[in-house]
Amino acid sequence: MILRQITSPGLAHNSYFLGSQGMAIVIDPRRDCEVFLELAREHDMRITHIFETHRNEDYVIGSLELAARCGAAIFHGKATEFAYGTAVSDGDEFAVGSLRCRVLETPGHTMEHIAVAVTDTEVSALPFLVFSGDALFAGDVGRTDFFGQENRARVSGMLYDSIHEKILPLGDGVIMCPAHGAGSVCGAEIADHQFSTIGYEKATNPLLKMDRQHFIGYKVAEHHYMPPYFGEMERLNQFGPPVKGHVPDLVPMEIGQVKNLMANGVQILDIRAPTSFAGGHIPGSISIWREGISAYAGYFLDYHTPIVLVADFDLGLGQVAEFLFRMGYDNLEGYLAGGFPAWFKAGERTAQSGAWTVQKLSSVLSENRDLFLLDVRDINNREDVGYIPGSAHIYAGELPDRACEVPKDRLVVVYCDAGYKGSLGASILSRLGYPSVVNLLGGMGAWIKAGYPVAGKNTGK
Amino acid sequence: MILRQITSPGLAHNSYFLGSQGMAIVIDPRRDCEVFLELAREHDMRITHIFETHRNEDYVIGSLELAARCGAAIFHGKATEFAYGTAVSDGDEFAVGSLRCRVLETPGHTMEHIAVAVTDTEVSALPFLVFSGDALFAGDVGRTDFFGQENRARVSGMLYDSIHEKILPLGDGVIMCPAHGAGSVCGAEIADHQFSTIGYEKATNPLLKMDRQHFIGYKVAEHHYMPPYFGEMERLNQFGPPVKGHVPDLVPMEIGQVKNLMANGVQILDIRAPTSFAGGHIPGSISIWREGISAYAGYFLDYHTPIVLVADFDLGLGQVAEFLFRMGYDNLEGYLAGGFPAWFKAGERTAQSGAWTVQKLSSVLSENRDLFLLDVRDINNREDVGYIPGSAHIYAGELPDRACEVPKDRLVVVYCDAGYKGSLGASILSRLGYPSVVNLLGGMGAWIKAGYPVAGKNTGK
Amino acid sequence: MILRQITSPGLAHNSYFLGSQGMAIVIDPRRDCEVFLELAREHDMRITHIFETHRNEDYVIGSLELAARCGAAIFHGKATEFAYGTAVSDGDEFAVGSLRCRVLETPGHTMEHIAVAVTDTEVSALPFLVFSGDALFAGDVGRTDFFGQENRARVSGMLYDSIHEKILPLGDGVIMCPAHGAGSVCGAEIADHQFSTIGYEKATNPLLKMDRQHFIGYKVAEHHYMPPYFGEMERLNQFGPPVKGHVPDLVPMEIGQVKNLMANGVQILDIRAPTSFAGGHIPGSISIWREGISAYAGYFLDYHTPIVLVADFDLGLGQVAEFLFRMGYDNLEGYLAGGFPAWFKAGERTAQSGAWTVQKLSSVLSENRDLFLLDVRDINNREDVGYIPGSAHIYAGELPDRACEVPKDRLVVVYCDAGYKGSLGASILSRLGYPSVVNLLGGMGAWIKAGYPVAGKNTGK
Amino acid sequence: MILRQITSPGLAHNSYFLGSQGMAIVIDPRRDCEVFLELAREHDMRITHIFETHRNEDYVIGSLELAARCGAAIFHGKATEFAYGTAVSDGDEFAVGSLRCRVLETPGHTMEHIAVAVTDTEVSALPFLVFSGDALFAGDVGRTDFFGQENRARVSGMLYDSIHEKILPLGDGVIMCPAHGAGSVCGAEIADHQFSTIGYEKATNPLLKMDRQHFIGYKVAEHHYMPPYFGEMERLNQFGPPVKGHVPDLVPMEIGQVKNLMANGVQILDIRAPTSFAGGHIPGSISIWREGISAYAGYFLDYHTPIVLVADFDLGLGQVAEFLFRMGYDNLEGYLAGGFPAWFKAGERTAQSGAWTVQKLSSVLSENRDLFLLDVRDINNREDVGYIPGSAHIYAGELPDRACEVPKDRLVVVYCDAGYKGSLGASILSRLGYPSVVNLLGGMGAWIKAGYPVAGKNTGK
Q: Which of D120, D124, D197 faces B173 most closely, judged by CB atoms?
């Protein structure tokens, strides 16, 4: 038996490859699917089945892409009507070599959500592992806010039942393979464990210790953000994303080409570090550091205007192309050849924003200089660890819609938890014409470590 | 300036990537074209032009494949009408950074053949290198037998003029980058030099020392084989091959699947060594060792019946898929998972052929045992180095058509120069129902090294 | 938390990399240790601790090699005196980021054997996983025959106690990471699961269902082979193997060099498939297919005579070098350039052995032709699935010592389970001067699948 | 014949691998020598000879490293006494397959300098290519300033004779393979051609058109910088550098470790872009962008104090380790895990320097604000393209020694040609305690492109 977890960093998404005796299945394949084909060849296995645990909302599923290349059949839960694949029902079984894969309908996160329990008949009739999808994570459970506020209680109850009636009874010794790891937007408090066991979760997952009513109350009160691109993902995943054959080719672009695009509408995605962005950038750029693309691009980038990347040394751009491919951004056109230095070497007009250390902010605040202090963190983070006294709060993802709340005629100091989203927020304000914007390097984390005062810390929890 | 030679082993074909100041051109791109895109990214260059020196007949050109991924424009000579790209004329110039690429119409090998002379304006107005296509090779010139016996003299004269009037005058210090290296079927005696110079060729290439009449006489008398797949290549390259996006995925197949295919028509391509093929193989297989595929598959494989590979350890199959992709065999279906050992481990019916050492053959011959000794080498090779006394000759590529000349009721010992094409020939005879076929390990080379008698050695030349 | 299982194919050995918050530990590192350094860089983690679960006997441990490159400290159990590293005791704890690693002394397989239980303090005080070394495997337990027949009962009891008192009490939901997977010589019946859980093992592992007395009886009766190289491994691992810095470089050798070595003593290791070996080989070669090297080379190769590899196409030789490096064969000199075909192309004297299909053997047996039928399988396999009527049995590994039991003046047909070890056995006999040796392609497996009669099948189990 | 040019970026150094018929030689191997071993295996060739064209002064030669791994013999010119290898003399010949390699003693750049002319006996008795070392480059010749001002005329004459009497007579059609490409500090005006021909150089290289007297005058007047590390290289290359076995392992370091090193002496090498360095850096860092390390590290880094790298995203650090390994910096300890963001996230004290656009500088200058404008370019560049009016000049490499010429109490604006060396210069001044330092983004290039006034442009040449 071969089990491989294939992670998509940033999304914190897990695909799985499971094979036995010359056959293999893939669970929730990512869109850049060569990795599965290579595993199949490495182990002389033929991929025969692809299971989607649910219609994912945070990335483009790679089922059609993979099926086009290996001929496997696609399966998903029957409660949503898909334009492709085959619907399965609770109890359906599929043989893969010596393994038996049994479908568990587990609605809650979505209606058509399924888990897949796997038994190795060569060893025992007991289940060995379960692919728990977005129903049960290490340390958390799936979010239940996709069906409107009015349905949250009902849907959360469904999830409770799915977990307690379908998954937990499989047994303490069953390995649990979830669809997401720590950092996913599909769960709030996912633990940093690649996989877990039913027994460990029963003993340690706080959500599993609640009774049904408590669980529902907790889930109804939970706060999640919903990036605008989720809608596009749901549409693509239900009706079938285009099959591309390969990750988009990154074309190097000269400055002249980039300026032509700028004249006609372009999304300049600056993937450099906050210090580099502050030191100089192409006017109008959006600053999202490379690892933050999966979580934040979906708030700011549209699906039709060409996207051009700007880096410092043009390293690791292929990975960034993968990030965007997984989110369906097939409008990635290329990158500025030579990186941002090519821009300043050409003497082109360069924007600069401020980058302050926490020491500098503290000193400025002590002088009572006029400034508008803007916290762009996740509201949960603000509530959990507190904030810099005097700061207003607008989540980075909501800034385009709520920028009117930020005064244009004052110096704006943006901060987040570490300094990356602060740079993102600063770039959004600069694009909107704010003349004087500063990002706080290190953000709230550095502020606290340096021993400066904190307001509003949530002492509960 | 960046110059890279990208070789396609087996075909002994050269593509070239040439870049300067952010721009690049590609000459005669191979079909698996990621290598050019990677070079472009590595050097922050945009591929803007693709030149085809001629409508190639021995492989599928990758121009459309590459253009689809980088937007470059395609150019070829105007004497043939292509269904894609743009026709160029003698003297046309293209700027690539500081380089100037000038088209030289150089008919002979084909009518629309062009060479491309390159000048670096940053250094001098003199040409620095020339892409000589199939007009001029290191140590040889292109073949001139594609237009029928009646046109060979005329066409050979055209080639003579192209070389002497267009290429050689560029100057002795000009680097010559040919489209083929040693081993190509597009030349008979290509030297084992990746590239050369005009000066070195003028001094050492025997074809360049002949006067026009002598040259034409030599070329008219020259013998070349014409694999049947050449026609398919010409058709594809003129009308545009299908754009695939990636080399076909190699699907592992279980024995049951292979047997199903066998029942419905399949081409089993056994890529193992001659010893392994002799020791056991799937009945009906064609034996072509991996490096021999580019040169020999085109004689035996058709373009519609599924192809299945059989190896020993399933190593390096991706390269074999590339070989077949470059020849347009998009009907490659997969490979026998587990290699040939999976077949014998399943107890399936296994064919075996003989493998004799030269010592054994010599001993058998000395006993006057009845056998039919068949030489399947290139006729040029037979004439140059001689043959084993008493052997008949049929070129391996012609064996399907001329097998009737081989007696079915006698033991047939096949030999070539080294033992690979002998295995191929033995496999063809076995497929045709010859009950008793043996391959000579080491072939003529080993026979000579072991000191056995040789007949018919061409003492001239 | 990052957990990675690094497998050494052939040995079926598992190393583990476990990291948290910038620190990492490695369990039982393999000798080619770059993989751990790359993981450390990929995750920005510093390797601080190396744990050896025990003094391994089947491969060279990579602790010193790894420590030399990253400065980590080495730890092992205190019951054996090592020439390097630090001894640890039951209950010792080590912090690695948020993780706590607790030592469990678990003697039985060896005296100094330890397991390491890991708790993630960020989640819970309960253990999350255990590195069970060679104490507990998926579906099996470690062998207990290293201390002589007279100590087997006592040692087996120690293992029973280690498992039942130290490992199983950790809890059903604890993930179990063993040092070996299916195919290892360190266990007899290891299941084909990369890892397992305490709960799953308790429910399914037959050894865990026995009471102490039954367990001891079973272990005392168990049969294991002991390859002669085990002694060298134990010595190296106790006193510290030489630090090499890299896997030995594979030097291509011309025929002349190989023949020179042959004159002075060399071990020719022929890694080709059984069909290829039968079709022709260098006289005196030992035939071990690539995947079989880890399990079988230790019976036949010494540590001082130069080793030269012979393949067909020189593919994947680096992996073979890794196999040998892991077993301490630092006397690997190189490989025959061009593979075996270079040999026959040179007209060199070539040995050939027979390769029969099961159909052929059946037919020959029905004719009552004289032959000696030799079964070289593991005795357990012979007893479990039966044998071909009339066959004698000598395990392949014991053949050098017991060849005198095989008649030299009769045709010897060697068979195993699949045809690989049969080729190995045939090569050993040929080296010893047996003039007429045949290997059965497919071995017992093919014989049974083809429906031929079987003797002595153990109907119990 | 296989010819491969292996470049070491940054150094613009070329090694060569040349093989024929199972044998190969390497010319001027770089220290990370796996690439040669891989080429040897790829082509089934044994490396038998290593030639050093001279005792290199700009990098550590890899001859001993390579010889230790493949057993090849090392050869160099006899005019310098080396502690290893064998001395060769003019006319010595070495056979490599069908090739003949003839030594040409070509003193001038150094006394023991040799070139190697290669003939392919299979084709002709005429030379095919020449490895010209540091005697003759594309578009330039080697520098002749290593033996003191008093010897320059004599040495330059020797070089003239070497070129005109030994190399040029080989013939116009001979391919010339030099030891350096464009960007090397071993020549001033090397053209951007990977290789050239004798004929092309004779026609286009301005140095080859001068008569002996003119040539000597030109070379005597030529200005070159001499980085301090050259002495260390000469010593190592003469007496034999330590054999390491692999490029130093890059160890990720936590902030605490880095601060410990800082307390005891450390060289923090900040390899980020100028914008990022300006936005924030560890106090005391030296700013050298990644591609600039080979050319500039040798001015600032010593060989005993530990070196720690700081990047933004920890990408491509392995290549930086190679750069330093090639320069003998075996004191590379590791890198700051998490890059510079880890520093500011920890709230550590962060230094910032200014980064101005050319527009900003122009505007400030027009306001007559007080500042010290410092040009740190190569003096040749200043003289060729002119400078910003009012600027002083100190070459970046000389800044440590001549900083006293820069006022500490004024704002210092540093500029170079593009903005990288300006960041380097700014970092050196900051380390020396200059409180107010700014780097000009884009430097002189951007200044000119933006149309601002230029002083002192050399109108000649």
A: D197
Q: Does B71 touch chain A (CB under 8 A)?
A: yes
Tokens of A188: 């709030």
Q: Residue D162: how many CB atoms within 10 A of its CB?
A: 26
Set D33, D101, D186, D416: catalytic member: D416
CA dihedral D167, D171, D172, D176 (to 10 degrees): -40
- pLDDT reported for residue D187: 78
DSSP string, A363-386: HHHHTT---EEEE-S-HHHHHHH-
Query: Which tens digits make up the pLDDT trace of D165-201?
Result: 999 999 999 999 999 999 888 877 899 999 999 999 9
Residues of chain B with Cβ-Cβ distance to A314 below 8 Å are: 41, 44
DSSP 8-state secondary structure symbol assigned to residue A390: T
B163 and B145 in contact (C-beta within 8 Å)? no
From the candidates C33, C101, C177, C416, give the one annotated as an active-site residue: C416
ipTM of the complex: 0.95
| Residues C173 and C225 sit within 8 Å (Cβ to Cβ) | no
- DSSP tag of C195: -
Chain C residues with CB inside 8 Å of D21's CB?
Answer: none
Enumerate the residues of chain D whose CB falls inside 8 A of the CB of residue A279: 273-279, 355, 441
What mean pLDDT is predicted for residues C260-273? Answer: 97
Distance separating alpha carbons of residues B130 and B175, to the nearest angstrom: 6
pLDDT tens for D427-440 read 999 999 999 999 99
Do the beta carbons of residue C190 and residue C142 sit within 8 Å?
A: no
Identity of residue A326: R
What DSSP line would sit under D122-153, residue for residue? TT-SSEEEEEEETTEETTEE----TT-GGGHH
pLDDT digits (tens, 9 = 90+) for C392-446: 999 999 999 999 999 999 999 999 999 999 999 999 999 999 999 999 999 999 9
Residues 6+ apart with CB under 8 A from A279: A352, A355, D273, D274, D275, D276, D277, D278, D279, D355, D441
Question: What is the rounded (10 degree) CA torsion for A288, A293, A296, A302?
Answer: 90
Cα(D456)–Cα(D460) distance, integer angstroms: 11
> Among A45-49, B182-186, C160-164, which stretch is predicted with the lowest mean pLDDT?
B182-186
Rounded Cα gap, residues D78 and D95, in angstroms: 20
Reported pTM: 0.95
Q: Is the pLDDT of residue A189 over 90?
A: no
CB neighbourhood size of B31 (10 A): 24
As given in the structure block, the two tokens for residue C149 are 């027949």
- The answer to whether residue A245 neighbours chain B at the CB level (below 8 Å) is yes
C-alpha radius of gyration, chain B, whole number? 24
